[in-house]
């Protein structure tokens, strides 16, 4: 399985916003710098996240973007499904893309794998990733001489 760049960067965008949750609106330029990502690319990725009501925005000199929900309420599975779709291959969710869909044994395998992957992704919230990031940075700090 290979996640798209859009999906990986979108998850990083959402994680960064979760790490700064309740700090007020965040400018995309700041996220781009912290995550070492293209601002232009983030401007494109944020559009479906806003449409799906995961992100809200405020205009003006102190404006920016912020999570519309608590990080505990947003799963990685939701982000991946929104940005990459909810299956590994198109024929799992849309039988019309393949003439063999009705009698293809590999389609059933792809469906089982997709369900397993997304079941796991649905158990991980942005809050969980924030906690993992904190644990990783504290381990890094503790291991330095």
What is the fold's blueprint, element by element?
Layout: H1 5-19, H2 28-35, H3 39-51, E1 55-58, E2 64-67, H4 76-84, H5 90-93, H6 105-121, H7 126-143
Antiparallel strand pairs: 1-2
What would your notes on this structure say?
The protein has 145 residues and is mainly alpha-helical. The protein has one domain (5-143): Orthogonal Bundle (Arc Repressor Mutant, subunit A). Helix content is 58%, strand content 6%. The protein has seven helices and two strands; from the N terminus they run H-H-H-E-E-H-H-H-H. It has helices at 5-19, 28-35, 39-51, 76-84, 90-93, 105-121, 126-143; strands spanning 55-58, 64-67. A two-stranded antiparallel sheet has the order 1-2. Helix 1 (5-19) packs across helix 2 (28-35). The longest helix is centred in the C-terminal third of the chain and has 18 residues, at 126-143. The termini are far apart.
